[in-house]
Specification:
The chain is α/β, with parallel strands linked by helices. The chain is built from eight helices and seven strands. The protein has a seven-stranded mixed β-sheet, with helices on both faces.
Length: 218
Amino acid sequence: MERASNRSYSLRGDRMTRAQSLAMSQSWDQYSIEIKTQLDLNQIFADKSQVILEIGSGMGEATAGIAQANPQTGYVAVEMHAPGLAALLILINQLELSNVKLIREDATYLLANFIPDNSLDGIHLLFPDPWPKNRQHKRRIVQGEFVELIASKLKPGGFIHIATDWQPYADWIKAKFATSTRFKGGTVERPSWRVLSKFEGQGLKKGHTVTDFRYERV
């Protein structure tokens, strides 16, 4: 299998609190997925009705809340930031969640190399980094290539739900999906399942407008 070599992430500081370090040492092996070959996520969550890939789970607050409210669904949180993964592990233990697994890897690299085609029920991309400066736009995860990549990984009828509080990025997302013939959909009302995280709440207090998108693979 020819593997794509490019990763899109930018590593941040990995300094963790004592509680986060303890969570990583005690719980990482139990809840993480080791990547060696292509992943059959439906087999990993064989007792769940569907599996959702959470791209960029941040500090895990929204992921844990969504997973707690939807125990019949399996969630795979993909994140590079170790303190964020550790914070999610703490929540998993506190809430006694059995439907969340963690992967520390760049999402685009993971999708390109380890997720089989036509295998995902859905993808959540909640508040990706907007990279607001013009020179940074090439670092945005939503690009034409990304749209085509996820189209190949989603099952027919599978979906991606995206939320952003940066209006220029919302316009960008809409334009990128508009060029693809493999998706239908667009802006939607905020879904009831999407937990209000501290990050989103801070944006709303600053007057940011949140745009939700749902696109289904044709």
